[in-house]
Amino acid sequence: MELLKEVLSMIKPSEEEKKVVSAVTEAVFQIAKEEIDNYNLDIVPYLVGSIAKNTYLSGDHDIDLFLAFPSNTPLEELKKTGLELAKAIGGKLDTYEIAYAEHPYVKATYKGFEVDLVPCYNVENWKEVRTAVDRSILHTKWIIEHLNGKNDEVRLLKRFLKGINVYGSEVYVRGFSGYLTELLIIKYGSFMKLIEDIEFLGKSKIVDLGGWIRKEPEIAYKTIERESESPLIVIDPVDPRRNVASALSWEKFGVFYFKAREFREDPRLEFFFPPEKKTGNYRRLLREKGTNLVTILFQKPDLVDDILLPQLEKSARGLEKVLKKKGFDVVDINWGYMEKAFIMLEVDKVHRPKMSLKIGPEFLTESGAEFYKKNKKVWIRGKRLYSEKEVTENIVDVIKELFIKNQVALGRTIKKEITNSDILVNFVPPKLEKEAYLFLSKEKWNVKG
């Protein structure tokens, strides 16, 4: 297909770019080896990820260097010594900082490249895996052995998934990982064969490239049973206990399903390189819809996306749940950050009626007689008079009271910032106007857009 050739010409690294990537990668590798020599341990550096597998896209090449410790190394020693080693290597690069996953690692930069320096165990098979990152070495080896020259097909699929916004297994994306992308190409042989068989993939659901159902049926079937609610079950060819697609959400798989069908019927460059979504006037849209926008705006905490965005989602869902109990119909929720972090709530109304108890005087008094005349409903408890009145509550006051009384399930690490936030109604700062429109118009998630 000529279109795919055109796309490849745009995403495949040139020979010159490959030489630069190779040179920088080799330089980082040599720096790592020199630092490893200072440690009296049998630590082996491994290049993993898309550079090692030659499946990276032009202009998108991070270096993933894993520092593999002997499998008999105590975990605490791996964490401590591994971080010291990663910091020592990072100190020889341009910049570095400590990041956190299952255990600490180092994120660095070198000559414009991002470099991850990750301590792990040097494992030979799935039975030796002790930490989540240990499999990465096995993944890289397996893909190199089985890809059989289909590297460009992986590139096409990656770019397609990026174009339709379903690429990435991070908790705030819940899409297709690079490894899953490579496995699907190995399974189907090409990008177009996968696209043509998308209905079969959705119905068959289970992919077992490692033959684990035959070799380790008990473990494999436990994995299948445990992951039965997932849209796809791709048993890891290097570990029968793991579903490579476990992070994939039904929403992201659904987008891929419909976009694959559309592409099959009408292949266009826009699937790979979509135009910027059209925007409009969010205030006019609110008037047309008859709904309201509540925006909770606060200082962005100094947290990585893997931590911040799930915490924002948890807080947004917590607000949605409690406001519904308080009588506000929450149409939709949105969260994210720009200069500041935000949570957006589309609600049916910003005011609600509420009955308030009126405590009156004792009835054997002049003021008691006056209270009796003024109120429609009056009752007596002991010697005192009581009535009720209808008041109007604003959603801002309701949210503030919920925060004060600690009645919202907020993300723990951002709770302080949220409870001290600004709450805006039907108005957002200029930098959030586009985000507000895309949210309210549903263009942000429109599968047919």
From TrEMBL:
<dbReference type="InterPro" id="IPR015329">
    <property type="entry name" value="tRNA_NucTransf2"/>
</dbReference>
<feature type="binding site">
    <location>
        <position position="167"/>
    </location>
    <ligand>
        <name>CTP</name>
    </ligand>
</feature>
<dbReference type="GO" id="GO:0001680">
    <property type="term" value="P:tRNA 3'-terminal CCA addition"/>
</dbReference>
<dbReference type="Pfam" id="PF01909">
    <property type="entry name" value="NTP_transf_2"/>
</dbReference>
<feature type="binding site">
    <location>
        <position position="116"/>
    </location>
    <ligand>
        <name>Mg(2+)</name>
    </ligand>
</feature>
<dbReference type="InterPro" id="IPR043519">
    <property type="entry name" value="NT_sf"/>
</dbReference>
<feature type="domain" description="CCA-adding enzyme C-terminal">
    <location>
        <begin position="289"/>
        <end position="421"/>
    </location>
</feature>
<keyword id="KW-0067">ATP-binding</keyword>
<feature type="domain" description="tRNA nucleotidyltransferase substrate binding">
    <location>
        <begin position="152"/>
        <end position="273"/>
    </location>
</feature>
<comment type="similarity">
    <text>Belongs to the tRNA nucleotidyltransferase/poly(A) polymerase family. Archaeal CCA-adding enzyme subfamily.</text>
</comment>
<dbReference type="GO" id="GO:0000287">
    <property type="term" value="F:magnesium ion binding"/>
</dbReference>
<keyword id="KW-0460">Magnesium</keyword>
<keyword id="KW-0548">Nucleotidyltransferase</keyword>
<keyword id="KW-0819">tRNA processing</keyword>
<dbReference type="Pfam" id="PF09249">
    <property type="entry name" value="tRNA_NucTransf2"/>
</dbReference>
<feature type="binding site">
    <location>
        <position position="158"/>
    </location>
    <ligand>
        <name>ATP</name>
    </ligand>
</feature>
<feature type="binding site">
    <location>
        <position position="167"/>
    </location>
    <ligand>
        <name>ATP</name>
    </ligand>
</feature>
<feature type="binding site">
    <location>
        <position position="139"/>
    </location>
    <ligand>
        <name>CTP</name>
    </ligand>
</feature>
<keyword id="KW-0694">RNA-binding</keyword>
<feature type="domain" description="Polymerase nucleotidyl transferase">
    <location>
        <begin position="41"/>
        <end position="139"/>
    </location>
</feature>
<dbReference type="GO" id="GO:0042245">
    <property type="term" value="P:RNA repair"/>
</dbReference>
<comment type="subunit">
    <text>Homodimer.</text>
</comment>
<keyword id="KW-0808">Transferase</keyword>
<protein>
    <recommendedName>
        <fullName>CCA-adding enzyme</fullName>
        <ecNumber>2.7.7.72</ecNumber>
    </recommendedName>
</protein>
<dbReference type="InterPro" id="IPR042090">
    <property type="entry name" value="CCA_tRNA_nucleotrans_2"/>
</dbReference>
<feature type="binding site">
    <location>
        <position position="53"/>
    </location>
    <ligand>
        <name>CTP</name>
    </ligand>
</feature>
<feature type="binding site">
    <location>
        <position position="62"/>
    </location>
    <ligand>
        <name>Mg(2+)</name>
    </ligand>
</feature>
<keyword id="KW-0692">RNA repair</keyword>
<feature type="binding site">
    <location>
        <position position="158"/>
    </location>
    <ligand>
        <name>CTP</name>
    </ligand>
</feature>
<dbReference type="InterPro" id="IPR011068">
    <property type="entry name" value="NuclTrfase_I-like_C"/>
</dbReference>
<keyword id="KW-0547">Nucleotide-binding</keyword>
<dbReference type="GO" id="GO:0000049">
    <property type="term" value="F:tRNA binding"/>
</dbReference>
<dbReference type="InterPro" id="IPR008229">
    <property type="entry name" value="CCA-adding_arc"/>
</dbReference>
<feature type="binding site">
    <location>
        <position position="50"/>
    </location>
    <ligand>
        <name>CTP</name>
    </ligand>
</feature>
<dbReference type="InterPro" id="IPR002934">
    <property type="entry name" value="Polymerase_NTP_transf_dom"/>
</dbReference>
<dbReference type="Pfam" id="PF21133">
    <property type="entry name" value="CAA_C"/>
</dbReference>
<feature type="binding site">
    <location>
        <position position="53"/>
    </location>
    <ligand>
        <name>ATP</name>
    </ligand>
</feature>
<dbReference type="InterPro" id="IPR048833">
    <property type="entry name" value="CAA_C"/>
</dbReference>
<dbReference type="GO" id="GO:0005524">
    <property type="term" value="F:ATP binding"/>
</dbReference>
<dbReference type="GO" id="GO:0004810">
    <property type="term" value="F:CCA tRNA nucleotidyltransferase activity"/>
</dbReference>
<keyword id="KW-0479">Metal-binding</keyword>
<feature type="binding site">
    <location>
        <position position="139"/>
    </location>
    <ligand>
        <name>ATP</name>
    </ligand>
</feature>
